[in-house]
Amino acid sequence: MRKKKFFAVATTLLTTAALTLSSMNYTYAETTKKNDAPSNLKVLKTEPKYSYKDAIRETVFVQSSLDTDENGVPDKIAVDIIRPKESNGDLKVPVIMDASPYYESLGRGNESEVKDKDKDGINEKFPLYYDNYFVPRGYAVVLPDMVGTNQSDGCPTTGGYEEIESARVVIDWLNGKAKAVDKNNKEVKADWTTGNVGMIGKSYDGTLANGVAATGVEGLKTIVPIGAISNWYNYYRYAGLTYYNNGPGGLASRVANSKRIAQCKPVFDRLNEQADDATGDYNAFWDERNYVKDIKKVKASVFAVHGLNDLNVKMNHFNDWWEALNKEKVPRKLWLTQTGHVDPFDFRRAEWVDTLHRWFDYWLMGIDNGIMNEPAVDIERGADVWETQPAWPTPDAKNFKIRLAPGENETSPGVLTTGPVRGNFTQSFTDNPNQTEVQMVTNEMTVRSDRLVFLSEPLSDDVHMSGMPEISLRANVDKENSNLTVMIVDYGMDTRVNYRASGEGIRTLQTESCWGESSDTDDACYRDTVKNTYTAPYEMVTRGWFDPQNWKSIEKTDPLSPGRSYKFEWGALPHDYVFKKGHRIGVIIAGSSRQRTLPSTTGATFEVDLGQSFINLPIVGGKKAVNF
Q1: Quick one: which of 75, 185, 245, 359 could link to 153 by a disulfide (CB 3.0–4.6 Å)?
Q2: Is 412 labeled as catalytic in the residue annotation?
Q3: How many Å apart are CA 600 and CA 58, to the nearest integer?
Q4: CATH of domain 397-625
Q5: Architecture of domain 56-389
Q6: DSSP assignment string, 389-417
């Protein structure tokens, strides 16, 4: 009797929920995965029931408190909106928002879509597929032009407060807390929205999402940052080394409204001056652009996507952000791919669209579809081979020391060992500023004067590294300044994703697939892609660069005293990688990496104390999992 009563109550509740949700644009859809549930059960999911061709398209200009071009007039932020025509009536819709600096010229996505391709002043296209797919399902898609770009007023400031505010104020307007006007200067209110906003975007767009989330703005329910910056210092610097000069001002000039570059030049010059390329030190300029420090303000859930081999927005951006979110127990989900700086729409398209759909349904529509009960992390282990796990790094990964030992003789490379290194062994190398990464890692059995090589024995089993390797070198240097590079390499023939080639791991095909509905000026079809793989005897797994003059802190340059012994400690880029049975783990120590940072010109020689130097590797299973 009690069981019958329970099922009767449950049926009544489900029926009531279906009636209520159906009136709010929700419908039932059959479960798509055969093993998820019995076939007679259904899950809630938004379905395409609104016309894309008939959708309302409008541009508004949100009033901000900014004056980035210092002309005495507050900057207006241009916002393009597409929403179901029914939202002019009783229908209230949530918002998917992609704020970007790229809508005028550089474009969005693998096909570089812009809003106004023919430059006639009319935005014919909403770049990417979000509008085509989600508007018919009862969402609005909102595309703000970041301050200083496209139709927005002012000048960009490369990650500064002004850029974040230019996106944040749009969310305020969507929640009735800011004003906007149309092109005729008539006030426009967002009375068509629920106020629930999800920000999404790759690279700069995802960076804006991170920054806005770190303001704690009301109404932002979730963000989906893809290959996004979390700290602009780490975009232009690594442990005190500068990647290249004039980065902030150069990027601001590149994304700025093409008609205002000359007007904004004083702003660009000021950005470069305050960035302090000469020292590479962390200062107030960079602290303003560090969103991780404000992690306690984050109220939105986070669905992060990042390339394990992204050498544009490197893995330390994701790692620092993710680790901070974890400490604050922010609801989150993660995809890690073997590609470089690539959108998941272009490396796992069908699964991505479905997962993103359910994510937005859950966080913006309030549909309890079970997505938060699924494994939190998807990791691509090999080309299109995916695994799930409950957290990242892998929960049972443990740091342990791998020490550097001398080889059998002077013509042999060094040895990696998990045991002690007895004796006062030293090895020296001289910085070669012209050496490439390939030169650093190839011919590993050859001893050279411009690098040190340390190799493990062939592995007796697979070894899984998950997390951030840590480097500790005891060394003296014969000059006041130089550079340091450490690379962790997998030596062993294998087929891998070719992230260093054009496309960063994908190859674009001539065929297309369509995702959503189309109009005469905005189609939902995009060129297909496949993984680009190659077979090679080694893989550069991860790198870590270091300015020895920042041995005390990244906030202060401290010239070295030649001949003095120093302890240089820093982290390599985080990674998740399986070294296969029979392969060797290699550690390369060298000076400048001219492909990645500004090289040193001092030609310094380092003498490394092997017994007091080591690499801390985060290995699943810890020391027991490694036998060499």
Answers
A1: 75
A2: no
A3: 53
A4: 2.60.120.260
A5: 3-Layer(aba) Sandwich (3.40)
A6: ESSSS-TTEEEEEEEEE--SSTTS-EEEE
